[in-house]
Amino acid sequence: MGKRCSLCGGKLVDNVCVECGLDNSKSDDSYTWGKSTCETKPMTHVHDEKEDPLAEKTMTEDARRAAETKKKQRAGYDNKSKKNTPAQILTVLVFIVTIGGAVIPWIGEKITQFQEPEQEVWSSEPVMQQDPYFGITREIPETGEPYSVTLGAGLYKCGVHIPEGVYRVALEGGSGSLNVEDEVNYISLFYSFGSDSEIEEIREADDVRIYKGALVTILDNVTLRFETENAQMELGGIANPNTESRTLEEQFVVGKDIPAGVYDVYCEEGSGIFEYYIPMDGYDSYEGKLIGDSQSTFPRTFKNVVLPDGVEVTITGMKVTLTPSEIIESVDYDKFYSDM
């Protein structure tokens, strides 16, 4: 048997190991385990990572490449298996705590947004009402004529049935409401008149500004007195061309059973709702007027009811008389509702 490699026991060719590439022509004491020239105990010495294990070793080119490849593979394996140092672990923990400290309050805020709101606490302090005439650019002239009129339930057009002016409105009898709607000047006024303090009814209202074109509606069994010192008496109504009254006690169709027009509706017997629908842009607008005879608490007459052609009117449990109103705005009855 020939001489073997002193390092790995492999076969030698020209004293160079074909297995590990070691040149065995050099001193065996430099390569044999436990016989290193390093001044340490055998089998306990660990070389520094920076030391080149190929330094001062004579190898063939192929053997050197193979050894370098193994070296690189070992270095890669060592890097993959290297454990995190305590400093690195501490850095990661600090990062997690920092992010958590910022994210957790944000999550809490989002959860709070989806919680039910607390019950609103009602205050007994009075609420300041906005000026209903805020932004009006045209003032009603201060000069004019004294004017007064007593009105009950019905629809009244300013400039047709009553003149423009700044009114004082006082309760004369009963209980009910006054509503003033002015589409041009964006005014909407509402007053509840009566003597029942539990529902905050009033007995009079001052500075009620009624401009030409505004619609005044009085509802329920109430009588109101309108007074002004600056009435603008340019009224533009016309006499009603209809003159025939009709008494009815069941459903009827305007244009078929009675002519289209403007009527004062008077309840002869019973009580209930004089109701009908007006076709508007894509929907039907409900109109209902409460009326009743002397035995009811409803107003007996509702004035200036505008009934265009084709409207179906329902009256249940009562008999009514339709009398043409004295003064009307025009014979274009559909326009009355399109202007509302």
UniProtKB/TrEMBL annotation:
Residues 44-82 are annotated as: Disordered. The chain crosses the membrane at residues 89-108. Residues 45-81 have a biased composition (Basic and acidic residues). Keywords: Membrane, Transmembrane, Transmembrane helix. The keyword Transmembrane applies. This is Uncharacterized protein.
